[in-house]
Amino acid sequence: MLDVIEAWHTAVNAGDAPAAGALCTDDVQVGGPRGAGRGRGLLVGWVGHAAVRLQPLRWFCGDDGAVVEQDARWVDGGTGD
Predict the structure, then answer these.
(1) Which of 16, 34, 46, 66 could form a disulfide with 61 if both were Cys (CB 3.0 to 4.6 A apart)?
(2) pTM
(3) β 35-38/29-32 pair status
(4) Which long-range contacts (CB under 8 A, 24 or more apart) does 34-38 make?
């Protein structure tokens, strides 16, 4: 399971929305300061425009899935900061 999580972070950090979406279930939940929603299409759209960089900090894995604590930083498209 951790290899999928690592591949997902790599895809998101590269802005590769199709690859990130392919690593998720159809009912993936996306949440953040502007709200939450479900679905692979929502995730793919978000990765495609968010310009976010995610650094995993801790993993909590069980039989039913995983939760990852992460540091999120958004990148300014004009400056790269």
Answers:
(1) 66
(2) 0.84
(3) antiparallel
(4) none
